[in-house]
């Protein structure tokens, strides 16, 4: 129980009685303060969520003049029977798994490197952050030119050093990793910035104390920087993995359309295709609900399991 | 009651513009008196850059001649236009005229409240100006729901300089696929430049349809619910596309935009893409090399060329009354031969009217710009693009895409892979009428 400040105790040592009128006002007051936020959340988050669940149970094509037909779990059954869904679900798992080393862990050495340079690191910070500022559409179109197998920049550069650069978007594995690499490059600088914010919280006194105790760089990283960076790492992990699915939408749409052999599609892109390419709203909504369940599961796992390893206090 | 009100509105609006809306020429010639509040209609489109400037100029001129109408154009990217239009209709936003990609017309016919353009025959005379085959795509029985607007037809664009370097006559471009392959092999051997590219379009769907149709096969059934290209002709068409990549190695695997960029840079000798790209290709290649344009290759010598149109049509959604009258007047204006020809000249899209060269302006233009002559000649070979039904369309299109990937990866011949793919497509689309 939280201690009551001494100044508000009465002479008898008991908390002062709250006036009756004030007590009557109190129960409703928090809700009144919260109401604007609750209304906004309800309108723009929870109602769409519930409506999406409803749409996943009907057959409809977005036409307001066409009645919805209740399908029950039929849309989910159709989805599970679809090869496209199976491929999209498998790729989604890969996009999330690959995001951990590439988008969550890789920025750490970059951030530590920039941080250790002090003020001189600001130039590198800017360079690393630049891709974040460029429109993903522009970036994808530029890479389409760079990777052009018919005399594109990559082909020419490869030829100059005796390498044969084929068509990275033409084979399943290389197409997937091209999309993944592009998405990593795009977000690397942003996550480096988050880690730098986390590193800024590490006080000089800790570092000096360890230095006095004779700690080397590795020991500093292992026993000081990493533990104190875990809250930031946890935050980056949660947000990046959630974002990993939708972040690759643009390069998929511009570079590969989900191919070759469905190797680059994911659940997010599949939902878009069902809903807005063929107007199968029921399947699109069912896919959305499954994404919600997947992301909810991942987040719950992180909060329940991984949160134990986070050091919130310095 | 509501019907009576609509009828009254319709009659009063019709009285105002009856003679004007019957034909575009009449409407263009005699502007009505300016009412206090003009009727505003919306036009969803995907025109950008110079095409948009030309498109908007036409709308402005229509407004000048029809002072009682304002046209609000609403842009969406060509790849997003279907979704944007569908979303606008779903949310009840005002849609009077919408640009609909050809292959989605059946979906829009079945699922959106499109209005038959010839519901009132007196106001539908403008339809007679179009080449009849261009109206087939939007025809259901006696009703016409879509008119052509931004149609293209696949053409061979070729680099005349590379032809000369390879010792080929650029004034005699390839006529058949056999000649295409031979020319490609010679060019690559003599110049080191890749021979040819062929557009795929999204999901490789249009490219596959084109190969099948030109080989004499049928891609989809009329209602779009059955795949039919496992016929000998269909298999032969698809096999040809595999052979170009795997057997003859004359076609690199690249995305459409990559092939267009390579051709414009002189790194690809021939590229088959829509006639709609003509203006842009001329602009991008001027000063680099001499451009040639030829008709789509015949599948075999002696066979008739069959090229499904690419591009988009216009559909109308205006409720009965002033807006519908205004929309019909605009469609009639756009159908007028002189206006349609001007749109074709400025945008690069195919001419749409019967006998476009009967228009002296068009005849003069074609004489001065011979690259467009093959496009006009190919109008006679144009057939309606195949349109997809609703159920399982995405799965089926994905199967086509994966089929082409498998063929290009040399996982088997078309004789084996095509029937398997067609069977899976028909299962996905619940086809039961073959």
Q: How would you describe this structure to a colleague?
A:
The complex is a heterodimer of chains A (314) and B (434). Chain A has 14 helices and two strands. Chain A has helices at residues 20-25, 29-55, 74-81, 83-105, 107-116, 121-133, 136-146, 153-160, 172-199, 204-212, 217-247, 249-256, 267-277, 281-304, and strands at residues 58-59, 69-70. In chain A, strands 1-2 form a two-stranded antiparallel sheet. In chain A, helix 4 runs antiparallel to helix 11 and helix 6 (121-133) packs across helix 9 (172-199). Chain A is flat. The two termini of chain A are 24 Å apart. In chain B, the strands form four sheets. Chain B has a five-stranded mixed sheet with strand order 2-1-3-12-6. A four-stranded mixed sheet of chain B has the order 8-9-7-10, with helices on both faces. A two-stranded antiparallel ribbon of chain B has the order 4-5. Chain B has 434 residues and is an alpha/beta fold. Chain B is globular. The longest helix of chain B has 21 residues, at 2-22.
Write the layout of secondary structure elements.
The complex is a heterodimer of chains A (314) and B (434).
Chain A: H1 20-25, H2 29-55, E1 58-59, E2 69-70, H3 74-81, H4 83-105, H5 107-116, H6 121-133, H7 136-146, H8 153-160, H9 172-199, H10 204-212, H11 217-247, H12 249-256, H13 267-277, H14 281-304
Antiparallel strand pairs in A: 1-2
Helix pairs in contact in A: 2-14, 3-14, 4-9, 4-11, 4-13, 5-6, 5-9, 6-9, 7-12, 9-11, 9-12, 11-14, 13-14
Chain B: H1 2-22, H2 24-29, E1 39-45, H3 49-65, E2 69-75, H4 81-90, E3 97-101, H5 105-111, H6 132-135, E4 139-140, E5 143-144, E6 146-152, E7 154-159, H7 160-165, H8 177-191, E8 194-198, H9 205-214, H10 232-245, H11 256-264, E9 268-274, H12 278-285, E10 291-295, E11 307-308, E12 310-316, H13 322-335, H14 337-347, H15 360-368, H16 373-378, E13 382-383, H17 393-408, H18 414-428
Parallel strand pairs in B: 1-2, 1-3, 8-9, 11-13
Antiparallel strand pairs in B: 3-12, 4-5, 6-12, 7-9, 7-10
Helix pairs in contact in B: 1-13, 3-14, 9-10, 10-18, 17-18
């Amino acid at each position: 129980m939280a201690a009551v400040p001494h100044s508000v105790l009465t002479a008898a040592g008991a908390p002062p009685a709250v006036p009756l009128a004030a007590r009557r006002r109190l129960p409703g007051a928090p809700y009144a303060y919260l109401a604007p936020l609750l209304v906004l959340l309800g309108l723009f988050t929870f109602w769409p969520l519930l409506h999406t669940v409803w749409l996943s149970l009907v057959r409809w094509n977005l036409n307001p003049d066409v009645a919805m037909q209740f399908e029950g779990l039929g849309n989910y059954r159709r989805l599970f029977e679809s090869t496209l869904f199976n491929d999209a679900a498998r790729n989604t798992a890969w996009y999330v798994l690959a995001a951990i080393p590439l988008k969550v862990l890789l920025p750490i050495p970059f951030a530590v490197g920039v941080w250790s340079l002090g003020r001189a690191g600001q130039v590198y910070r800017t360079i690393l952050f630049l891709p974040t500022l460029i429109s993903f559409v522009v970036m994808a179109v530029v890479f389409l030119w760079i990777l052009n197998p018919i005399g594109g920049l990559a082909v020419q550069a490869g030829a100059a050093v005796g390498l044969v650069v084929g068509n990275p978007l033409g084979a399943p594995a290389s197409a997937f990793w091209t999309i993944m690499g592009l998405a990593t490059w795009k977000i690397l600088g942003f996550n480096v910035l988050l880690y730098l914010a986390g590193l800024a919280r590490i006080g000089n006194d800790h570092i000096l104390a360890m230095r006095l105790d004779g700690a080397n760089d590795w020991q500093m990283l292992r026993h000081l920087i990493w533990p104190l960076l875990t809250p930031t790492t946890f935050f980056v992990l949660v947000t990046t993995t959630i974002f990993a699915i939708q972040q690759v939408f643009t390069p998929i749409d511009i570079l590969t359309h989900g191919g070759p052999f469905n190797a680059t599609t994911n659940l997010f892109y599949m939902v878009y295709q069902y809903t807005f390419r063929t107007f199968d709203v029921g399947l699109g909504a069912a896919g959305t609900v499954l994404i919600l369940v997947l992301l909810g599961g991942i987040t719950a796992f992180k909060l329940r399991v991984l949160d134990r390893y986070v050091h919130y206090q310095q | 009651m509501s019907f009576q009100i609509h009828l009254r509105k319709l009659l009063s609006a019709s009285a105002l513009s009856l003679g004007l809306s019957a034909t575009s020429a009449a409407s263009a010639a005699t502007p009505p008196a300016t009412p206090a509040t003009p009727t505003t209609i919306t036009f969803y489109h995907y025109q950008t850059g110079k095409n948009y400037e030309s498109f908007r100029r036409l709308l402005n001129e229509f407004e000048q001649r029809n002072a009682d109408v304002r046209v609000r154009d609403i842009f969406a990217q060509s790849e997003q236009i279907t979704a944007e239009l569908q979303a606008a209709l779903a949310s009840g936003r005002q849609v009077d005229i919408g640009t609909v990609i050809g292959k989605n017309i059946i979906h829009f016919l079945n699922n959106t409240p499109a209005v038959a353009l010839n519901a009132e025959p007196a106001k539908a005379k403008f339809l007679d100006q179009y080449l009849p085959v261009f109206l087939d795509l939007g025809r259901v029985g006696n009703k016409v729901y879509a008119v052509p607007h931004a149609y293209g037809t696949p053409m061979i664009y070729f680099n005349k300089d590379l032809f000369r370097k390879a010792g080929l006559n650029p004034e005699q471009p390839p006529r058949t696929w056999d000649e295409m392959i031979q020319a490609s092999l010679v060019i690559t051997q003599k110049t080191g430049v890749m021979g040819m590219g062929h557009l795929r379009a999204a999901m490789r769907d249009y490219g596959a349809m084109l190969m099948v149709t030109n080989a004499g096969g049928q891609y989809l059934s009329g209602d779009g619910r059955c795949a039919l290209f496992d016929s000998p002709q269909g298999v032969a068409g698809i096999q040809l596309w595999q052979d170009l990549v795997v057997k003859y190695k004359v076609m690199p695997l690249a995305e459409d935009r990559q092939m267009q960029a390579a051709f414009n840079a002189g790194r690809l000798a021939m590229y088959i893409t829509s006639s709609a790209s003509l203006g842009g290709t001329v602009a991008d290649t001027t000063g680099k090399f001499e451009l040639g344009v030829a008709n789509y290759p015949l599948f075999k010598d002696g066979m008739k060329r069959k090229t499904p149109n690419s591009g988009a049509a216009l559909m109308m959604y205006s409720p009965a009354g002033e807006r519908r009258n205004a929309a019909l007047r605009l469609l009639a204006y756009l159908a007028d031969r002189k206006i349609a020809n001007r749109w074709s000249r400025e945008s690069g899209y195919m001419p749409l009217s019967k006998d476009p060269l009967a228009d002296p302006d068009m005849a003069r233009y074609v004489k001065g710009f011979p690259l467009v002559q093959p496009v006009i000649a190919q109008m006679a070979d144009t057939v309606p693009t195949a349109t997809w039904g609703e159920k399982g369309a995405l799965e089926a299109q994905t199967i086509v895409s994966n089929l082409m990937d498998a063929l290009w990866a040399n996982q088997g011949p078309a004789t084996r892979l095509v029937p398997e793919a067609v069977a899976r497509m028909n299962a996905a689309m619940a086809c039961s009428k073959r």
